[in-house]
Amino acid sequence: MENTNENKASQMGDNLSKNKPISGTQKSDFDETRILISQLTRLFEEELKDIHWAEEALVKAMPKLIKNARTPDLRDAISNHLTETENQVRRIEQVFEILGKNVSSKKCEAMEGLIKEADEIMRTCDEGIMRDEGIIAAAQKVEHYEISTYGTLHQIAETLGLVKAVKLIQSTLDEEKAADRKLTEIAIRIANKQNIHAN
Ligand SMILES: [Fe+2]
Fold it and tell me: pLDDT tens digits, residue range 6-26?
């Protein structure tokens, strides 16, 4: 496992093996660093399991959004993002590999709730502009959840010195932010096309 903090720890180990004197303060710093690395690694793994479950749930849920959307741009945007989402699942699995761990998932209650909300919107909104705007709202909530999770994972991976994981997570984070921007653009285009202005 690549790890800059581990390197720091191993430098301390080198001092010990070369019989260099090590103070009590250095020793406790070393123990504290090891505990923090282990705690952050555990948190990182838990967040990975959560987002793995969430992305797999989205791969199953997105076809229904595409089927319900009537604006061609919106259907295309969600279809493209479905392909990206499938790749994002693979990237998460690559990060598990980097950690030397088996791929695993943990139910993401938040994503389950957001998907239920999307279903509710599709059920209660009239087909057409209303439902399309509702789908955009539901999809943007999903994107914002993902952006916050990948942002946290990115920061922890940087702290742990997981360089390859940082790059993988950054690629996904860029796609999620682009998807969110695209949805905003489509919402504006729909409103402009329909000339929906209250005043
Ligand atoms: Fe996404």
Answer: 444 344 334 333 445 556 666
- pLDDT of residue 180 exceeding 90, the answer is yes
Give the model's pLDDT for residue 194. Answer: 77
What is the 120 CA–ligand 1 centroid distance (Å)?
19
Ligand 1 centroid to Cα of residue 39, in Å, is 27
- 69 CA from centroid of ligand 1 (Å): 17
Q: Where are the domains of the chain?
A: 45-193
Distance from residue 54's CA to the centre of ligand 1 (Å): 10
Whether the CB-CB separation of 85 and 53 falls below 8 Å is answered with: no
The CATH fold of domain 45-193: Ferritin (1.20.1260)
Distance 21 CA to ligand 1 centre (A): 52
Per-residue pLDDT tens digits for 95-109 = 999 999 999 999 999
Question: Is there a contact between 15 and 22 (Cβ–Cβ < 8 Å)?
Answer: yes
The span from the CA of 173 to the CA of 178, in Å, is: 9
Average pLDDT in the 18-38 region? 74
* C-alpha 10 – ligand 1 centre gap (Å): 39
Separation of alpha carbons 130 and 189, rounded Å: 14
